[in-house]
UniProtKB/TrEMBL annotation:
Identification of the protein by name: ATP-dependent 6-phosphofructokinase
Family per similarity comment: Belongs to the phosphofructokinase type A (PFKA) family. ATP-dependent PFK group I subfamily. Prokaryotic clade 'B1' sub-subfamily.
Active site: D132
Activity regulation summary: Allosterically activated by ADP and other diphosphonucleosides, and allosterically inhibited by phosphoenolpyruvate.
Gene Ontology CC entries for this record: 6-phosphofructokinase complex
Entry's localization field: Cytoplasm
Binding site for ATP: G15, R76, S77, G106, D107, G108, T109
Protein's organism: Leeuwenhoekiella blandensis (strain CECT 7118 / CCUG 51940 / KCTC 22103 / MED217)
GO biological process, one term: fructose 1,6-bisphosphate metabolic process
Pathway membership, UniProt: Carbohydrate degradation; glycolysis; D-glyceraldehyde 3-phosphate and glycerone phosphate from D-glucose: step 3/4
Residue sites binding Mg(2+) per the record: D107
Pfam families per record: PFK
Length: 328
């Protein structure tokens, strides 16, 4: 029989994402609602090893639903990859009478949680917090919606200057190995071309497409490039390639970078975080473990963490087609 949960720890780990604070708030308040204790663990798994814990109550999480970043801080922990590090973490949890953990992060966070559970049979519940939207078992990860809006806003601004100077801009967006941010922000910002790892356009077709754009009367262009795309080695190489192979183009590069991870979460992410936090705590209390809380067709669902880590997300083919039609 599953052990009774009286105290839950919550941590944020890996790359931060907007909405992590809202999720921490939801976890803490759901614990308060069910009259169980909650402990914040600072700096992800690093804090678990260092015993960097702080008891939290409903008031400790006031005024954070709107804040970007994570008040619990985040880290990528090499020590937690070792059995010795995990043993210290387990001892700290036992010493503090913590009997379940909510881990908020991406696949690295989930992998750590899963290994820890296998070694110590410690109850774990995951909340997918990453801007990349690269976790299977959930239609959206926490922070993705905000990152899309941030990227679109930035690209809109780049378009203003691109158009004033009749320039071509390569704009690199984040997303690690997947193109969800690039495709959606590209369509949303009206990009002329979108380069994503899932659909290799190739350098020749890129040149053709740029020439077509020019011939159709466009004086400036935005090409959104996912950081994981392999058309060129990177956006700077794409610029060099166009400089060398096309005449009459004034090319610039903008890498949006970590600004996409910051900022106040969108309403969508705040609501999603609140729902995920409630579901995570109540699932632990119901004796569940090794699941991730996902949203599927607007419903909160539990999805095995193991499948979430190993699964692949799929690019929206219909949206790829829409983007092709929009660039006519
Ligand atoms: O996973 C989130 C993410 O922002 C990716 O989009 C990006 O590739 C990576 O993290 C950057 O990581 P770091 O913060 O270590 O530079």
């Amino acid at each position: 029989m599953a052990q009774k949960i009286r105290k839950i720890g919550v941590l944020t780990s890996g790359g931060d994402s907007p909405g992590m604070n809202a999720a921490v708030r939801a976890v803490v308040r759901t614990c308060a609602y069910h009259k169980i204790d909650c402990v914040g663990v600072y700096r992800g798994y690093e804090g678990l090893i260092d015993g960097d814990f702080e008891p939290m109550d409903a008031r400790s999480v006031r005024d954070i639903i709107n804040r970007g970043g994570t008040m619990l801080k985040s880290a990528r922990s090499d020590r937690f990859r070792t059995p010795e590090g995990r043993k210290i973490a387990f001892d700290n949890l036992k010493e503090n009478n913590i009997d379940g953990l909510v881990v908020i992060g991406g696949d690295g966070t989930f992998t750590g949680g899963l290994i820890f559970n296998k070694e110590y049979n410690f109850p774990i519940m995951g909340i997918p917090g990453t801007i990349d939207n690269d976790i299977s078992g959930t239609d959206k990860t926490l922070g993705y919606d905000t990152a899309l809006n941030t990227a679109v806003e930035a690209i809109d601004k780049i378009r203003d200057t691109a158009s004033s100077h009749n320039r071509l801009f390569f704009v690199e967006v984040m997303g690690r190995d997947v193109g969800h941010i690039a495709l959606n922000a590209g369509v949303g910002a009206g990009a002329e071309e979108i380069l994503i790892p899932e659909e290799n356009l190739g350098l020749d077709r890129l040149l053709e497409s740029l020439l077509r754009s020019k011939a159709s009367g466009k004086t400036s262009s935005i090409v959104v490039v996912a950081e994981g795309d392999k058309t060129g080695k990177n956006v700077f190489e794409l610029k060099d390639y166009v400089d060398e192979n096309l005449e009459g183009y004034d090319v610039r590069v903008a890498v949006l970078g970590h600004m996409q991870r910051g900022g106040s979460p969108s309403c969508y992410d705040r609501v999603l975080a609140s729902r995920m936090g409630v579901k995570a705590v109540e699932s632990l209390l119901a004796g569940e473990s090794n699941y991730m809380v996902g949203i599927q067709h607007e419903k909160m669902e539990l999805y095995p963490i193991e499948k979430a880590i190993k699964g692949k997300t799929h690019i929206n083919k219909e949206l790829v087609r829409v983007s092709e039609i929009m660039t006519t």
